[in-house]
Amino acid sequence: MKRIFIPTKNAEDWKQFLAEPEKQWRTGFSAKTLANSWEAQEGFPPEITALFSTCDDNKFHDMEMLFAVPEYKVELAGKGEPSHNDIFILARDGKGGLVSIAVEGKVSETFGPTIEQWSANASGGKLTRLKFLKEKLNHAADFPSNIRYQLLHRAASAVIEAERFGAKTAIMIVHSFSQINQGFEDYENFLGLYNINAVKRMLQKVTYIDDITLYCSWAVGDKKYLQSDDLEENINKTYEIIKSQYPNMTIDSLNVVRDVIKHRNYWKPEKVKTLLLAESHVFTPAEDNEMVLQYPHYLYDEGLPPNFVRLVYCLGYGEKTLVPGILKNHGTWQYWRIFASCVANNKHFNFDSVEITGCADINRRLHNKLEMLKNLKSKGVWLVDCSILSLMGRVEKRTSKQKRDLLKISWENYIKKLILEVKPGYIIVIGKRVGRIVEEDPFMLDIPYKVLDQPQARLSSDKHRKILETYQDICSRC
User: 310 with 374, same domain?
Assistant: First the structure.
């Protein structure tokens, strides 16, 4: 890694340093959220400054940031990648001592593979690295199998750079913007290596490595950086309007709404060419939403959202092995057929590759689904729902008026503004109910669109085939 660093002007300057900018730089995910949070300050974000005041040693009460470097790489012994620190900071404490700080940003992303998964069939290079990490973290015993590898090398990064700069203090901070503290259990397990009970928002002394003291902390970031301020405000406003208008209606929790948006935003193209505008996701009870998807290890690096929702973009919807605790999980094969039509180069559609009847092997099927979603993204095709709340699922039956109200309120207060922001070249409206909402709005006169029947509509197989061919025609032209 070169040792010449260029000052940033704003958060967008961080994007170029990411390993996969187009995949990682997304609203609601850690890279962009962390950058927005830190660039908004002259020094440390207020929640980080607050951490320092929790320590009994008052030298931390007057910390000064000397410099901070995003996407900072620290070399580790053994073959393999260096440790990619989201931010490295060199600071000065209140007594003039240097402090090395490694920051790991998180929203809903996992900490990656456990030691058991990472070291399976370990090569000599991996064994060398594990020995190196044990030395740098002053841990003589083997690491337990459930410890997350990322937390080990992130903490080690702080120690390594403390040695390089001659600092006597090293700090590893998990800067989490998760509203449910996703991943905190893994952080607890890590501090448990040293018989320490992890506490949020507190700087805790962990261990000594020769003359260096290692501290760790779990910081809770400001949720306003998760989205553009306007859209976040519009989501909350829309949700509250619906609750006030229908106080006795069973609706999705706000966490479900946000997780649906998170899954959707993960697959948002850089430039939306064709927007698919459907009705809604399927109702997801809070207890189902709390289920963390059991992704196979080869998907960890994808950074997929972890919580279950009944939405086609959630790979666990319809894949029971990813969420074994949910009994009724049939998925929505109709929308996978729409997706297959949108990415097809001709009228010979391949549905079998993403359906259990055509591809029984779960790993191959997941691979095919992932590749299809990536293809949709690269072609600029994005699915959005007109209602932020479910119109269907395990809830009391909605009346036609209630469904229309949910669609109309969401359209006026959130979805229309979202469409205005992404500026699609064409909109395919899925279903006549949404079509009527769109057709009544003069705003839509500026955007070409076409209304197609719902995939569940009672039509002949020939008519359904013609509709899928229309998807292919439009997406291949845009």
Answer: yes
